[in-house]
Design goal:
The complex is a heterodimer of chains A (241) and B (351). Chain A has 241 residues and is of the alpha+beta class. Chain A contains five helices and 14 strands. Chain A has helices at residues 26-42, 68-81, 106-112, 117-125, 222-230, and strands at 7-10, 15-19, 47-52, 56-61, 91-98, 129-134, 141-144, 159-162, 166-170, 173-177, 181-183, 186-190, 211-216, 237-239. In chain A, the strands form three sheets. A seven-stranded mixed beta barrel of chain A has the order 5-12-9-10-7-6-13. The termini of chain A are far apart. The longest helix of chain B has 17 residues, at 288-304. Chain B is elongated. The chains are: A alpha+beta (241), B alpha+beta (351). Chains A and B meet through β2, β3 and β4 of A and β13, β16, β19, β20 and α4 of B.
Amino acid sequence: MTKSYPRLTVSGDSALALEFGDSIDPVLNDQVLALDAAIARARIAGVVETVPTYRSLLVHYEPTVIGFAKLGELITEIAARGVATLRKGHRWRVPVVYGGAFGIDLEEVAQRHGMTPDEIVARHSGGDYRVYMLGFLPGYTYLGGLDPKIATPRRHDPRLETPAGTIGIGGIQAGIQCLAAPSGWHLLGRTPMRTYHPRRDPMFLIEPGDSVTFFPIPVSEWEALDRAAEAGELVAEAVDP
Amino acid sequence: MSLLAIETVGPATSVQDAGRHGAQRYGLTTSGAMDRMSLAVANALVGQPIGAAAIEIGPFGVSFRAHGGAVRVALAGAIRSMKVGARPVEVNETVFVGEGQTLALGPARSGMFSYLGAEGGIAGEPVYGSLSVSARAGLGSPYPRPLRSNDELIVGTADAALPERRLKIAPHEFGPIRVVLGPQDDAMTTQAVALFLDVDWLVSPKSDRMGYRLEGPVLDHADGFNIVSDGTAPGSIQVPGNGQPLVLLADRGTTGGYPKIATVITADLSRLSQTPAGGRVRFVTVQIEEAQAEARRFVAMLASIPSRVEALVRDVPSGETLFSANLAGRAVNALDPQTWQDAHGRDEARS
């Protein structure tokens, strides 16, 4: 089945998406983010909000104000213009306590790849990750750029609950999971950083298009950093480009 | 200001309004009332905007007490018994609850969710324009979680002199739930799409505000069940690896990694949300143009609800009411010949 892109799809009567491809690819994600920015600038009446994802942009809209045909045409036109002045993203340095009770799957992932836990940590924290999207739950950050040598298929039996701050990997993806949630990913560690905090201004820190690196911290630092993060401090470093 | 205090409450009861928009790009879902139509009815009765915050009440019973003043409330949605003290009262009507009086609601007899609107509204601090509870996100006001015993909501103080009001509203219609196919029906086999539209689906007891799980025949994927995660809409019907559809609702994840075979149309989401666990659902497809025409009709219908509120005139007033009102000084009691014989006699004498 060959599809031609960009492809306009219907998500019911109040949302549509423009897909740029069907793979995880920074070039496609750049197109998504460029379209997202262009739609924000165009201020189209009836558009409620947009959700950029890996390779498509979902647009929530009010069918009482604008119909599918008209909005689809407008958005396809904007995408065809291909203006891509992308915002320069922040670079985030995110502290992680790896292994033990903080990353209960580290040993198993190491065994599966015939490596020591330290090698897994070195490879995971040595990566330079792109933030492709946030989704599923508040602050859940989907990252690309995992070392393929430690890519690990998702668990057969997803866990019904995994802790807030979980740093996990699933297949070729890596992630920062801000809230406690069910997950089929492998848990390598935890960060005290709150990518989402309902009582902090700003509530959200990371944007799609930002980049992330991780650095290991000793478990002895957890408590103080966790407390500071709960009180509203960043605890991660944001470096402007 | 009066307080509406929660005395006893089951799970799945929380403050909800028209939902929270603007942060789905950060993974924050909209939440909001599962049944927007019943939310509108409850609010219109108590003079609130149709999308204002009300108490969404799950299938279990709940009781409230008015403190610090009287309150006036109205219940819409799922059918259940309702009493102020020992006096039975009706859904789709305003109900005056005096200071210290208890309002007791029974479990839902049909439907899933009821909405209790309060005169003066529910006081709270909106986030992204909404008081809606999202338990997972720790958001919602005045409590960022479902309600518990001893919680107190600040509402308006009611004036006993004002007349009660009612709204005649037809119950949700039966019949298939309308969907628009896609965006990933092509990730399913053609047989699976046909089967999806050809059977009655059973609503699983594992359903909640996040989504309704459906049980039935296994729907086969054309080429694996993982897609590159993309955005979801209210009513998106995901088909995960087990081939059993999951309709994403108010507390859905903003993105998902399973193919979406179809999307429930806006006009039918309220009706679907009121289908209880064990209930059956059948789907029928409509084209996007028809779905949007229905959405526009639905929004117009919601907007018309406040104009349909009318002053309450009891169809069959009780003798007790008439006597106590002493309307013309000559009401009769059919069980007491003396009252009507006397009245009759006087009428005859006058003519």
